[in-house]
Amino acid sequence: MNTSPTAQLAAFAAGLRFDDIPTPVIRKTEDLLVDWFGSAIAGKGSRPVETLTKFAASMGPSDGAAEVLIDRSRSSAYFAAMANAAASHVAEQDDVHNGSVFHPATVVFPAALAMAQTLGSSGQQLLTAAVAGYEVGIRVGEFLGRSHYKVFHTTGTAGTLAAAAAAGSLLGLNAAQMQHAFGSAGTQSAGLWEFLRTAADSKQLHTAHAAAAGLMSACLARDGFTGAAQILEGPQGMAAGMSSDADPAKLTDGLGTRWATVETSFKYHASCRHTHPAADALLQVMQVNQLTPADLERVVTHVHQGAIDVLGPVVNPATVHQSKFSMGTVLGLVARFGHAGLVEFDQHFQDDLTVALRDKVVMELDAEVDAAYPRRWIGKVTVTTTDGRTLQGRVDEPKGDPGNTLSRDEITAKAHRLAAFSGGASEAEMARAIKALWAIAQSPRIGPLLAGAA
Amino acid sequence: MNTSPTAQLAAFAAGLRFDDIPTPVIRKTEDLLVDWFGSAIAGKGSRPVETLTKFAASMGPSDGAAEVLIDRSRSSAYFAAMANAAASHVAEQDDVHNGSVFHPATVVFPAALAMAQTLGSSGQQLLTAAVAGYEVGIRVGEFLGRSHYKVFHTTGTAGTLAAAAAAGSLLGLNAAQMQHAFGSAGTQSAGLWEFLRTAADSKQLHTAHAAAAGLMSACLARDGFTGAAQILEGPQGMAAGMSSDADPAKLTDGLGTRWATVETSFKYHASCRHTHPAADALLQVMQVNQLTPADLERVVTHVHQGAIDVLGPVVNPATVHQSKFSMGTVLGLVARFGHAGLVEFDQHFQDDLTVALRDKVVMELDAEVDAAYPRRWIGKVTVTTTDGRTLQGRVDEPKGDPGNTLSRDEITAKAHRLAAFSGGASEAEMARAIKALWAIAQSPRIGPLLAGAA
Fold first, then answer.
1. Which parts of the sequence belong to the MmgE/PrpD N-terminal domain (chains A, B) (predicted)?
2. Domains of chain B, each with CATH number or no CATH
3. CA distances from B239 to A219, B259, B260 (A)
């Protein structure tokens, strides 16, 4: 039992110490933390996020050590994790790990921050917990495979284990306790893509659920509550129920030597990541050939099957959020504005010009792109111009990927833009909080990020 | 969209009124309520239940209108539903619906009671909500089918929708809101059988999660939070992800004419329901032939595949709870004591004599029993005696099934036994509470069931 893949992964998460983590991994984790903070603040004012936060306030205590970022209220760790996780995913600007198609930040940091604030953990403990959460969640996502992602929102499912690993690290769970926490987290693992078909609010519920259920699982394990020993690869475990191509070897791939955390990509466009490679490829072909939107007659995006599965149902997006899952809308905005940010979606997703461009875009399955996915997200487009030319665009790493990453200045600027968009914090508040976050490895005790800033 | 099976089921749950429900269905629902109350009180002192309740207390408010039954504390509806649902399933004495292999009471009543106490609903509203929860949960379980149950604990998965229907009924959700509540509940649907392999505590987590997540989904829908329109039968919904033999016609089977609530069985033995038909068949053959345990050389139980799937992994049970999933242990206790109740499991599951009998019992797949399952749970055993006889035992309806049901006196006595076992309430407290529950249809406002009883 103790050498099963689940047991090895749990032992790794439980045993991870700050001094074991290479410095570049720590620096990247700080980047991811600041990037996440901006996304969390960006959730303010979003109807589904506010509704979930109202629910948490109505069912939780009226005070506590953990901070609800969008309204600066305090609650128990459980509800703060729930509310902050709901907030972090709605702008579609939070990070993503390509190989697992998993968004780590939105489930890992809400659980880690809430638990760290509750326990009075140090910054180094918080960073260590975040790395544990990223390494576990990414491997679980890779393990569950492409068949899983066709129906399940991996961030919701693998997210419960990622959040459990992060919270469990801060609670100081031993290897056996961490394995029990994984069992409890995995058996609460949930999240279906069906909501996309009617543009429903479930994506925020999935992250809220994953962060809260994962944190709960870690707390229960500390108190002796047991879970399945092999919730991931067991014959009636997650893979048995929710995947047809799961590979247990992925669970332990390079533990302690391969740092999956640094493979995580930042999102540049405010849309579903599946649209980014094609968007960057279209930008490239338009810049190289000096095209304007009026030059576009037809745009064929050559994509992997996962893009068709997730984006295919979205033909005529009815809401801003749904439009972020419309390949045509994203490319229409990129063609018009050179990027597809929160403001562009919010104000222009239904413009006549955007809609006209949207309807010129089609997706076609591409063998090379599909074979490279999910490890590499290649962008390929074929543009037919109104004057009859056929032009090819291609990017091998979309902006924000590890080989084409964002600088700390770009990350800081992005967080400021997100806060300005939502009104969740003033520029001065953001500057103060971000400065503290860049120095978090020196913090002896994590307090509120926006303390006294109301 | 409005004529989809999910939409029809949601409209039924939202539109159900007390006066629409035939009187025998109401009376049966009162039976189920009293039977559930005994099971909830029986959870007191159980380590996993106490641990979950401690978690709820640590993360929830210190007061509220909803009652946590095992410790008479008060909390918000969310945490009371979570704690009471954890408590109701641990004694394995709560009710079951055969056709869906779904335990309705443990998820429906905790959500309904917590919401009714919070809203100050009437007894008639509570009973109506319970019927809505039973009718929905049972149909969802039937819809998900046998393939689902091989890996998933249907009470955890279908339970989220059952709890949402009950809570949503009390909240007065309209049909569209109820459909959104179903979407949010279904996308949080979870629960894997893997925990049985190591006798872990997850069963209590599954019911706690289902009741809390379902109640949450109803509250969110009231506040405008949307869910998938076809979370059950949609191409990326529950069936797509978690079943290979789902039948959407089951979702709307006889809505308003067939009352699935009255098909629910009470549990007589304190073990997994899959053991009951064989236990009753063994009792029958022993009584008819006046056998003693010493006469038993070998007992072949002729069972359905689901029994083998769930009970097969349990060869040498290490805990009281696991022993309730051991066909051999259950039959050993029945042979020794004439029944397998909480006391028998607690004090005798590891006796030498029980273990010796356990090892004489085998399961064999039986074509007739398997074909009748899950609508009918036939019990068939072949006993070889030490003096060389081969004897057959058979029951067509195990004790507690609708055709072989418990009287109100038997239900009351069972609840008293459960409370006496756990020490969760005194005999006088139970008598007072049960008397009030039998008269609940006349209650203008649901208050605490154990008020002033501490």
1. 8-248
2. 5-267+420-442 (1.10.4100.10), 273-399 (3.30.1330.120)
3. 31, 23, 21
